[in-house]
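look at this fold:
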Amino acid sequence: MQFKEDKFKQNWQEAQKSIASFLKNNSFMVWEERKIENRRVDILAKRSYNNKIFYLVFEVKHYEKITPSIEDKSLEQLEDYLKLLVNRELERKSKKSILENYLFVGYLVLSKDYGIYLNRKKNWRKKQYFSDDEILNEIWRRNVFLFCSSQEHIQSNLESSGFAFYSQSKLSDFF
């Protein structure tokens, strides 16, 4: 996934549109500015493949300077979105079905300043406690992943969680 960094330093909406386009080109259904209950996420994406359901929730942040408190608030916001999404799916599907067939990914994309780290890999600072319900806690531990990075690390991070990305071959590739 290649981005022109200077373009995103001026406009977070361009970063959001490019991420949405990348996901659409890789067979995801994508909704920008989507509401989950009373909250609005920047990008919600879904893909079904081999009886598995993959949900991605992206939050794009475009701050001049990322501080630890801003990062904490953004992480809490992302976790809230994922909790709402898990609970919404639990109203529709059985807990067993979700444990076996669903994967939820929350992704914080920093489009301008990256704080200390340019790329935080899977489950950095993910809380292990979700609720008093042990099945919900198990879903949270096994089926929910969190990432934080700049745009250029999105594809490799998602691939590390089992996502497959591909591009359509063109006739010119063979010559």
In short: Helices lie at 5-8, 12-24, 68-92, 95-101, 134-143, 154-160. Strands lie at 29-36, 39-49, 52-61, 102-110, 119-120, 144-149. The CA atoms of residues 122 and 160 lie 8 Å apart. The first helix runs from residue 5 to 8.
